[in-house]
Design goal:
Blueprint lengths: L4 E5 L5 E4 L2 E4 L3 E9 L2 E9 L2 E7 L2 E4 L9 E4 L15 E4 L8 E8 L6 E6 L1 E6 L13 E2 L2 E2 L12 E2 L7 E6 L5 E6 L21 E9 L2 E9 L2
Parallel strand pairs: 6-11, 7-12, 14-19
Antiparallel strand pairs: 1-4, 2-3, 4-5, 6-8, 9-10, 10-12, 13-15, 16-17, 16-18, 18-19
Length: 229
């Protein structure tokens, strides 16, 4: 500050003043007052919460195995803050249980609390693979990709199903979050009969989470995929 100017803060828990310099402490509202001689100037100041993203890490396991430990990664901490700066730690859960069949299951994160952060959450995916036979490795089981981004960049532009070529007599259908069927095809393959973000009638579907059922032979797999553009 300048000699002769006296600064004060109405809420030193938000902004404190030392040696004429303002120090941001926490999110909130305060009024900064400057006195110069007999004149007083005041200004309300709002310190916004910093954005913080908490994303669930993707996990995998074999059907019949206990769920792996679920964890998260943080993006957005400022200064020397870290996970211990949260007043309430996030919860991380999944709908999959030990007996869940092969498929993709959402990992949901939420409930964290931090006074100085505006928190948003990003889900993860728990991929459950078919159990290995006691006598031979079953490496030909179809595996549905967890996401697609058909934006024309040549990367992940369609929903890939690994090993589906070994099961040409298959049926694949998708439903939106309201349970409405938006895509249904027989003999799905990764060459010329594949889902690229369009419905059966050719309409471009909105991005979001869709739930699938893949039937092949006497087996079936269900799970969800995330469509982004």
């Amino acid at each position: 500050g300048f000699t002769g100017i006296i600064y004060t803060s109405s809420n030193t828990g938000v902004i404190s003043i030392a040696a004429g310099k303002l120090h941001i402490k926490n999110a909130g509202i305060t009024t900064i007052t400057a006195k110069v001689g007999g004149v007083t100037y005041s200004q309300a100041v709002t310190v916004n919460k910093a954005p913080l993203i908490i994303k669930a890490n993707n996990k995998s396991k074999t059907a019949g195995a206990v769920n792996p430990a679920l964890d998260v990664v943080y993006t957005g901490f400022v200064y020397s803050d870290n996970a211990t700066s949260l007043t309430v730690q996030p919860t991380v859960t999944t709908t999959a249980i030990t007996s869940s069949p092969a498929g993709s299951y959402p990992i949901t994160v939420g409930s964290a609390v931090a006074a100085n952060y505006a928190i948003t959450y990003e889900p993860g995916t728990l991929t459950v693979s078919k159990a290995v036979s006691n006598f031979a490795l079953d490496s030909g089981t179809p595996v549905v990709s967890s996401s697609l981004s058909p934006n024309g960049d040549g990367i992940n532009d369609y929903l890939s199903i690994a090993n589906i070529e070994a099961y040409p007599d298959n049926t694949f259908l998708l439903m939106n979050s309201q349970g409405v069927q938006v895509y249904n095809t027989k003999r799905y393959n990764n060459l010329n009969n594949r889902f690229d973000g369009h419905s059966e009638s050719g309409h471009k579907l909105p991005q979001g989470t869709y739930f699938y059922l893949l039937q092949y032979g006497s087996e079936s797999i269900k799970g969800y995929v995330i469509l982004k553009y």
